Amino acid sequence: MLDELGIKLIVFGFTTAFFVVLLATPSLIKVAKIKHLVDEPIEKRKKHRRSIPTLGGVIIFGAVLFSYALWYPDDYLHIPKSFSNFKFLVASLILLFFIGVKDDIFGTASIKKLIAHMMVAFILVMMAEIKIHSMEGIFGVYELDEWQSAMLSVFAYIVIVNAYNLIDGVDGLAGGFGFIACFIFGVWFVLTGNVPLAMLSFVLAGALAAFLVFNFSPAKIFMGDSGSLVTGAILSVLAISAINEPRDGLPDYLSKVHSAVFAMAVLAYPLLDTFRVFTYRAFRGVSPFSADRNHLHHNLGSLGLGDVKTVTIIYSYSIYVVVGTIVLSHPDPTCSFLIGFAVAWVPVMALFFMKKRMKIG
Question: What's the pTM?
Answer without folding.
Answer: 0.93
